[in-house]
Amino acid sequence: MSRSLNRVQIIGNLGADPELRTTTGGARVATLSVATSRRWTDRQGQPQEKTEWHRVIFWEKLAELAERYLKKGDRVYVEGSIEYRQYEDREGQTRYITEIRGREIIMLGGRGEGADFGSPTAGSRDTEHGKSQGAKDDYEEFSNESLTPAGDDDLPF
User: Fold this and answer.
1) In whole angstroms, how far apart are CA 27 and each of 47, 92, 156?
2) Could you give the C-alpha distances from 57 to 23, 82, 99, 105, 147, in angstroms and in order?
3) CB count, 10 Å around CB of 70?
4) Contact criterion met (CB below 8 Å) for 15 and 72
5) pLDDT tens, position by position, for the chain (157 residues)?
6) 142 Cβ contact partners less than 8 Å away, ≥ 6 residues apart
7) Cα dihedral: 108, 114, 118, 124 (round 10)
8) Are strands 28-41 and 8-14 parallel, antiparallel or unpaired?
């Protein structure tokens, strides 16, 4: 049996503060808008740039941490998987969404520079690596596995 892989890694800047909401089932969800840019020179020698916007979703504790520590403009590393959803809007039209289900986030600049949320080794780094002790206390006990909602299994077998 062959395996498959759905893994996304992006580095970009937040276009807005994280939006935190609670589902009808009581789960906490944070939505982030992350911009990544690509620059190149065209055939006429003119510099060009294209920015892509990515919708990133974090659940439960990572959602709360994103709301607490992340702000518009922050540079972040996000790791997760791509998910495709569809829903019906208020007018009855079918809408499609592509999003990244975040499993890990690392702050690359700004407040709490270098803070790592969701990593299995998050609590193993110390303040010399850019984390404040207060932030470390908030997330050191969490791992990717403990933040995945029950019943979610990415394994293809």
Assistant:
1) 45, 26, 25
2) 13, 10, 7, 11, 13
3) 23
4) yes
5) 789 999 999 999 999 999 999 999 999 999 999 999 999 999 999 999 999 999 999 999 999 999 999 999 999 999 999 999 999 999 999 999 999 999 999 999 754 455 555 554 443 333 333 333 333 333 333 333 334 444 444 444 4
6) 61, 62, 117, 118, 122
7) 160
8) antiparallel
- CB-neighbour burial class of residue 24 (10 A; exposed 0-12, middle 13-18, buried 19+): exposed
**Long-range pairs for 116-124: beta carbons < 8 A, 24 or more residues apart:** 117/62, 117/65, 117/66, 117/69, 117/142, 118/62, 118/142, 118/143, 118/144, 118/147, 119/143, 119/144, 120/144, 120/145
Amino acid identity of 56? V
Domains and CATH numbers, the chain: 12-38+47-147 (2.40.50.140)
- Phi and psi at residue 144, in whole multiples of 5°? -55, -40
The four Cα atoms 114, 123, 146, 87 give a dihedral, to 10 degrees, of -10
| Alpha-carbon gap, residue 101 to 154, rounded angstroms | 12
pTM of the model: 0.67
Rounded CA-CA distance 92/104 in Å is 35
